[in-house]
Amino acid sequence: MPEFLSIGEPLVVFAAEDKDQSLVEAESFKKYVAGAELNVCLGLSKLNNIVHYVSMLGRDPFGEFIIDSIQRSKIKTDYISLTDKYKTGFYFKNKVSTGDPNTFYFRAGSAASHFDAAKISQIDFSNLKVIHVTGIFAALSSENMKALLELENFANNRNIMLTFDPNLRPALWKNQSTMIRATNHLAANATVVMPGINEAEILMGSRDPKAIAEFYLKRKRTQIVVIKLGAKGAYFQTKQGSSGFIPGYKVNTVVDTVGAGDGFAVGFIHGILNSCSLQQAISYGNAIGAMAVTSEGDNDGYPDLKQLSRFLNSNQ
Ligand SMILES: O=C(O)C(=O)C[C@H](O)[C@H](O)COP(=O)(O)O
Predict the structure, then answer these.
(1) Which domains are delineated in the chain?
(2) How many angstroms separate the alpha carbon of residue 242 from the centre of ligand 1?
(3) By alpha-carbon position, which residue is closest to atom 9 of ligand 1?
(4) Which residues participate in catalysis according to the annotation?
(5) pLDDT in tens, 61-89
(6) Pure H helices in the chain
(7) Would the pTM of this model clear 0.90, i.e. be above it?
């Protein structure tokens, strides 16, 4: 069975329980597991894929909380290390009636930001079909950037599909121009680049899906560009010349939009790991992105196989 691997910073998220209060005002919060790449790992594992997660956590209550949930999910933990020296990161998000919640991070100098790049060469790449990376891990420290570039290199040398989500987090970068340059550099090594439309506008200056796709397809390695258009769906274009728009799914109530982009990655990569067509993989991405916004945590709306097929059947 083809296997999947990702590297990232796991976080605890405290989600405000009272609606439309700022993080200054909110008084009660519920605790969940988060972190972009971990969201993708948890989602893929829930869909019965074989998943490896690479990271470093602090040996502290939040690290324990995360490890516990990773172990329950059956994600492989061989490449997860623990440290007493640094702490596990966390963040807060408020709850809003419309739009995206505000987020505030406590992650500077976290355990994951001290990941040792030498660990990348210890990974067994032999059964991996897809490796997923995002710009977040690279933003955490120069050593993490080195680790990510090395992981990309290993993937490229072994012809393993490398999927890349920019996941722009301006608060983590020195300034906007550094963020743009570094993110586009990481994207150039990817087989599949999947930005959100707003991210793409920041990264290359256009909201035209075709222009965005052509910008990234100019790079030698990139074969597929998928642009996430929010609730509308996604546009794709390939180096071989096919392109199209795959419509999104409607949900009745949007509870929280955080985790939708990672939900898209879960569906898309699930399709690829299970040898579906590109269109089918994107449609799974749209479906799980939609399901993600119906729950409060960042990844608790992701489905198992039964829930996914029930959702697809009732939304035909
Ligand atoms: O890792 C981070 O920096 C976070 O902010 C934690 C969040 O769980 C995801 O990043 C959600 O990402 P989206 O799916 O793009 O909404």
Answers:
(1) 4-314 (3.40.1190.20)
(2) 30
(3) 36
(4) 262
(5) 999 999 999 999 999 999 999 999 999 99
(6) 36-46, 61-73, 135-139, 142-157, 176-188, 197-204, 209-217, 260-273, 278-292, 305-314
(7) yes
